[in-house]
Amino acid sequence: MSGRVTDEVEIDVTRSPSSHHHVENLPYVHKVGVPPKQSLLKEFTSTLKETFFHDEPLRPFKDQPKSRKLVLGLQALFPILEWGRDYNLSKFRGDLIAGLTIASLAIPQDIGYAKLANLDPQYALYSSFVPPLVYAFMGSSRDIAIGPVAVVSLLLGTLLQKEIDPSNKVEYQRLAFTATFFAGITQATLGVLRLGFLIDFLSHAAIVGFMAGAAITIGLQQLKGFLGIKTFTKKTDIVSVMRSVWTTVHHGGKKNRKLFWVAAIAPLISVIVATFFVFITHANKHGVAIVSHIKKGVNPASADQIFFTGGYLLKGFRIGVVAGMIALTESIAIGRTFAAVKDYQLDGNKEMVALGTMNVIGSMTSCYVATGSFSRSAVNFMAGCNTAVSNIVMSCVLLLTLLVITPLFKYTPNAVISSIIISAVIGLIDIQAMILIWKIDKLDFIACMGAFFGVVFVSVEIGLLIAVGISFAKILLQVTRPRTALLGNLPRTSVYRNINQYPDATKVAGILIVRVDSAIYFSNSNYVKERILRWLTDEEEQVKANKQTRIQYLVVEMSPITDIDTSGIHALEELYRTLQKREIQLVLANPGQAVIDKLYASGFANLIGEDKIFLTVADVVLTYAPRTEEP
């Protein structure tokens, strides 16, 4: 045990003399405040408000006339009505440049991402036309660029092909639209019910690992287009992919090499140059795989293709929920990052409603799941976007592309599209973030690596399951095994701190001071009781060996204990009885409002005596240190 034991504790106290415990010459000790009893309805309302409405979304509506409330309601649903009033030509100039820039990136990326989802290229282009328009009117982020993303495309393609073979295009597309519909419903529901905190259960470390693993998997998947391999595994794990590469490496690979390095500059320029060379050299007739036909025209309606009945309804719902949650997590993370950089507030619940609405509408207009894109949003930010109008500009460019330009992409080599996807996903591998996670929290690093290796060596969904599982395991571990600490007095102060953190802190003779750094619930109450008793046993052995003053008071410092339930109260009662048998008095210090209220409601305060509940540890020491007896 670290820390020194002293019979004389220096405490700087300037309090008026008075007798709280009828002990002469003791300084005044302030009683712990007991809050007035709240009605059940008021307590429930307060808890509900803090859980779901902590940001007070209805505050702007207070004391406003009905007409103003209507305007505020519309602005809350469509933020463009608020910031649009101050929009000007200067802002549009930045949005125009940013919109054109992300459009040039989106077109080639979309063609590649469609392949990850096992869909025809036009469906990804559709998804960069309608959803960004909807988001521009409903989203609260100024910087997010909307469209298909690599990770969600891969996840969707992996899950869909397990239910329907992609060669059955009609049924496969219908299931994709169904999954997109339910992804949108999931996202919007979380926003409307203000359940956005659920996405926080996927920790930052798990997301870093999952994204890195997905980036490796996506890169490996591009070897098919890179090397011109015609027969390729449908599995996503690294072992299956590399087996496909090695067993078919001589099939068409050599014929690709002279056009392989054409894509070397920017994505769209690469596509234009490569497409031009394939067209004039007829390379497609000599073994170079090309995109082939992309359907011309705007999004056709697809509401009648969604499975609202039958066996595929539940499958579409399941896939949609998973894809929707991952898409939501990625988009919110991006939005928060750029909002912090530009110092504005991102409304998470509005974002969920906006993303959900755009995906529901998208599912009815031949789109698949769209969300905020890391690569596009970064380009959008660096290009100088000011508002969500950059998404509208991108949508207009995509509309022009769908109406006029799509036939020109017929001769685009698959190798170029693959290289563009690889360049896009490389940024998802954040080595610096992994190093930082290792330095800060080893358990977080295990979650990160678990998600990474799960995706790379097994499958995307297993990696996702591992990520969620480890995140929950960490929460359970922290809840069921909270930290505890022995406290000592810092020299020349009345402050008591962890003796491991402050080696010069001195333990008080005859008094053991323990701090519990967590709420006490049914899941950890027994552990907390046993851990406190272990501290006591260890201390008693040390005291006996050193022939010091025996432990007569056990003080539980309760300031970190934010709440306690029935099991927690029961554990304290058991602790009290155990200590009574050992002739040790239980004393509580600084219980919070919620805790002290339950201590009195349960009768525990009366059991140990109100005079055994103090405002601070210093008050306990002032009261009992002079009364400790020698062994």
TrEMBL record:
Swiss-Prot/TrEMBL keywords: Membrane, Transmembrane, Transmembrane helix, Transport
Main location: membrane
Biological processes, Gene Ontology terms: transmembrane transport
InterPro entries listed in its UniProt record: SLC26A/SulP_dom (IPR011547), SLC26A/SulP_fam (IPR001902), STAS_dom (IPR002645), STAS_dom_sf (IPR036513)
Record localization: Membrane
UniProt xrefs under Pfam families: STAS, Sulfate_transp
Transmembrane regions: 172-195, 201-220, 259-280, 317-341, 353-371, 391-409, 416-438, 450-473
STAS domain mapped to chain residues: 501-624
Any one annotated GO CC term: membrane
Matches recorded under SUPFAM superfamilies: SpoIIaa-like
Membrane topology field: Multi-pass membrane protein
Name of the featured protein: STAS domain-containing protein
